[in-house]
Amino acid sequence: MSPEENKRSWAEPYKIKMVEPVRMISRQEREKAIEEAGYNTFLLRSRDVYIDLLTDSGTSAMSDRQWAGMMMGDEAYAGSENFYHLEEAIQTYYGYKHVVPTHQGRGAEHIISQLMIKKNDFVPGNMYFTTTKLHQELAGGTFVDVIIDEAHDPEDEHPFKANIDLNKLESLIKNKGAENIPYLSIATSVNMAGGQPISMANLKEVRALTQKYGIPIIHDMTRVAENAYFIKQREEGYADVSIKDIVYEICSLTDGATMSAKKDALVNIGGFLALNDEELFRKAQNMVVIYEGLHTYGGMAGRDMEALAIGISESVDEDHIRARVGQVQYLGQKLIDAGVPIVRPIGSHGVFLDAKKILPHLSQDQLPAQSLAATLYIDAGVRSMERGVVSAGRNPETGEHNYPALELIRLTIPRRVYTQAHMDVVAESVAMVYKNREQVKGLAFDYEPEYLRFFQSRFKQIG
Q1: Is 145 annotated as catalytic?
Q2: CATH 3.40.640.10: which residues of the chain?
Q3: Which overall architecture, per CATH, does domain 64-315 show?
Q4: Within 94-218, where are the H helices?
Q5: Domain 3-56+318-462 listed as CATH 3.90.1150.10
Q6: Where does the chain hold its CATH 3.90.1150.10 domain(s)?
């Protein structure tokens, strides 16, 4: 686009063919609903939600091509034709040699953790993710954060806050021994940091360092296309490179990947483990039969694999990714203009509210992010999710809460679902809650499950 064209308004690169009605229940009904849900937005019924920004996982709208592809589902138990379409798409767009389909991303995380991690291993990565870290711990490993310090500062404007700190990584290798580090866990568009990208330059440096010590890189590629978009926008030398080629280059610098296809790849269910090492692939193929399903469907129906194969190609479309990230940027800028503290720069898949700054009267023990999410729902029926002390869980040795530097609310935008008008409603609601922030009360645990507590915990108001 020319500079003049860039200044003009833009619209979504699709038109609406089908609609799903939503409703706004009364404030009294919302207050009752969140109380019955134990102030946990995960426990709300979707029918009581007006605008659902809980997650972008499995909530995207599929295209007409994907829906047409689903009618071509080959539901044979073994050797489904759709598996081979999926395998070809992964090899073409990502470059990995071997594919093990799974029901979703955490199925792939489980398999790779069980295969590669032994007791007392250390797994470095660019900030933890909840399910990834848990699978690593269940396999006997310990996650070690080696992300740059800027990632833990919501106000820092570093353009690539998902970058690895090479000194932290090499120090860990020297202290613990390369033989005790089964792989480096690299995420593109780091979720817990606010949807922040890793640069190609940093990834190349990381690749050189890990090759020096013989440590493979396993890529959490859930939002790799969004990361590629930021590389194209922000990194020197990539302005004229296609999203498709940037994605392929990112993957070429890694040895394997776990994928929750419910994000970038625009499907409602599905995932895969992709590997280049044939011996490891054979072991993974054997494991998927135990935990997921046969190695040519791995927990997915044939029709879902077909939709996924098509979604992979659509995910790297230039117009699509520009509009997808553009909608997130639109909401984020409206909140910045309203003076609301958010994680900056604005991320790729959602806008992250800084609950510590918004609710300074609540300590982390009073669960400010969880409280803020519940309050936002009460205000306008907008469902968001906590990414703070509740998500961070407990130290397995001491049983004490983990206290992350970031205490955030995630407004996660599904792909191709909402209009800019919906974003305006969300921005107005957040601004109203921010205006009345001193009225927000803290929360305490009323019920806490052993694992991944943010999904099912219940809370009670305090103060």
Answers
A1: no
A2: 64-315
A3: 3-Layer(aba) Sandwich (3.40)
A4: 105-116, 130-138, 166-176, 200-213
A5: yes
A6: 3-56+318-462
Rounded to 5 degrees, what angle do the CA atoms 34, 423, 459 make?
Answer: 20
Instruction: State residue 365's pLDDT score.
Output: 97
Please pick, among 129, 230, 272, 418, the residue that the annotation labels catalytic. 129
Measured CA distances, 343 to 92, 336, 353 (Å): 35, 10, 6
- Label residue 7 by pLDDT band (50, 70, 90): low
Contacts of 450 (CB under 8 A, 6+ apart): none
Question: Per residue in 129-140, pLDDT tens?
Answer: 999 999 999 999
Coarse DSSP helix, strand, coil percentages of the chain, rounded to the nearest 5 percent = 45, 15, 40
Q: Active-site residue 375, yes or no?
A: no
Establish whether 454 is a catalytic residue.
Answer: yes
Q: Give the active site residue among 263, 410, 437, 453.
A: 263
pLDDT band at 10 (very low <50, low <70, confident <90, very high): confident
> Catalytic: which of 220, 255, 264, 354?
220
Q: Tell me: pLDDT of 1 over 60.
A: no
Query: Is 281 a residue of the active site?
Result: no
319 is catalytic: no
Q: Is 220 a catalytic residue?
A: yes
204 catalytic? Reply is no
Model confidence at 242, pLDDT cuts 50, 70, 90, reads: very high
Strand partners, 385: 410
Give me the catalytic one of 41, 102, 130, 258: 130
